[in-house]
TrEMBL record:
The lineage of its organism: Bacteria, Bacillati, Actinomycetota, Actinomycetes, Pseudonocardiales. Residues 148-243 form the Mandelate racemase/muconate lactonizing enzyme C-terminal domain. Belongs to the mandelate racemase/muconate lactonizing enzyme family. This is Mandelate racemase. InterPro entries: Enolase-like_C_sf, Enolase-like_N, Enolase_C-like, Mandel_Rmase/mucon_lact_enz_CS, Mandelate_racemase_C, Mandelate_racemase_N_dom.
Length: 371
């Protein structure tokens, strides 16, 4: 079996729809995420090697969903990839960029499957193919949202899964935001790690007031305090003394460059979906590090395959935040797991395994349904 001669023989897809764990439904400034309608991707090489990926796309994030992803994968990207050499995967990513504009989450799902097949063909974990590992485990946190009994049930469910670090959804009105954060601080205790995520829901004036009033509860960071395009406003929030995480402000390399020039963030939240694939995500992290920015891995509610890819990218980054946990939550967020063998995650950290490629595959019943 030679990776140098292997070509793309087939690309298969499988739409999946999974409900979130009822107590952990995310309610934020960008809406409610109670179900994920995603697309799984399988690439098969002429050597018989299979690679898997996941399109974890939601319309509010990038204008993509499972339906658009399946259309573009089957009718545009597959046509462009069939018969092409598997190595190097970066050349295949360039082809995808030439034949399809935008749609980064869709490309990321196919890219992950290509890199998974490539690493499996080489007989090594994906993290090694990406230049790592720099670590073999990553600390993680979980989002909490809702109010009153809903919030308390979310906290109880998170703790029962082992989580001790949290991100509270805000940007829904300052008074309610403060009440929500205060309750989580009360539940978790003074020493617990708590940050806040506004998803761009505050105006500049609201952000200033909210950060000032939230300081009582010791937030470790504020994520995307104002709208993604308001880099000047983000820089102003930074001056208030709480670390600012750029999430929606950074999709591709151009966005990252603008944030760096504007001194708009302390930390970049890196997604495979936003960046367009695992190798591009690693490049983003390296660029951020070069300019003195911290990085963490953010989440769009990835299922098991997406979470495995997040983990490999996190471990391939030379520098990953030691202060702020990442959002590699995978099956913790869902009522079921799509993986044959779950990730090694206890709510406090997620750990690499020794398997080739992603080190995981979908359940057998799902593998039989790809077409």
């Amino acid at each position: 079996m030679s990776v140098l001669t292997a070509r793309i023989a087939a690309v298969h897809t499988l739409p999946v729809s999974l409900p979130a764990h009822p107590a952990l439904v995310v309610r934020g400034a960008k809406g409610t995420h109670d179900r994920s309608d995603f697309l799984l991707v399988r690439v098969v090489t002429t050597e018989g090697v299979e690679g898997y990926g996941e399109v974890s796309a939601t319309p509010l994030w990038s204008g993509e969903d499972a339906a658009s992803a399946e259309h573009f994968v089957r009718n545009v990207l597959t046509t462009a990839l069939l018969g092409r050499k598997l190595a190097p995967p970066g050349a295949l990513e360039a082809i995808m960029d030439r034949v399809l504009a935008a749609n980064p989450f869709t490309k990321a799902g196919v890219s992950t499957a290509l890199w998974d097949a490539y690493a499996r063909s080489l007989g090594m974990p994906l993290v090694t193919a990406l230049g790592g590992p720099y670590r073999d485990e990553v600390p993680i946190k979980l989002s909490l949202s809702g109010d009153g009994e809903v919030l308390e049930k979310a906290y109880d469910a998170a703790v029962s899964s082992g989580f001790t670090s949290f991100k509270v959804k805000v940007g829904l009105g300052i008074d309610g935001d403060l009440t929500r954060v205060a309750r989580v601080r009360e539940l978790a205790g003074l020493g617990a790690f708590i940050g806040v995520d506004a998803n761009g829901g505050w105006s500049r004036a609201e952000a200033r007031e909210a950060v000032r009033r939230l300081s009582t509860f010791g937030p470790a960071f504020v994520e995307q305090p104002v709208k993604p395009s308001d880099l000047e406003g983000m820089a102003a929030v930074r001056s208030l003394g709480v670390p600012v995480v750029a999430d929606e402000s950074v999709f591709g390399a151009d966005d990252l460059a603008r944030v760096i020039r504007a001194s708009a963030a302390d930390v970049i939240s890196i997604y495979l979906g936003k960046s367009g694939g695992p190798a591009k995500a690693v490049v983003q992290g390296r660029v951020a590090e070069t300019f003195g920015l911290d990085t963490l891995i953010g989440s769009n509610g990835e299922l098991g395959l997406g979470a495995a890819a997040q983990l490999h990218v996190a471990c391939a980054l030379p520098a990953l935040s030691e202060r702020l946990p990442s959002d590699i939550i995978g099956a913790h967020y869902y009522a079921e797991d799509i993986l044959e063998t779950p990730l090694d995650s206890n709510g406090k950290r997620v750990r690499l395994t020794d398997g080739h490629g992603l080190g995981v595959v979908p359940r057998d019943d799902l593998r039989r349904r790809f077409r």
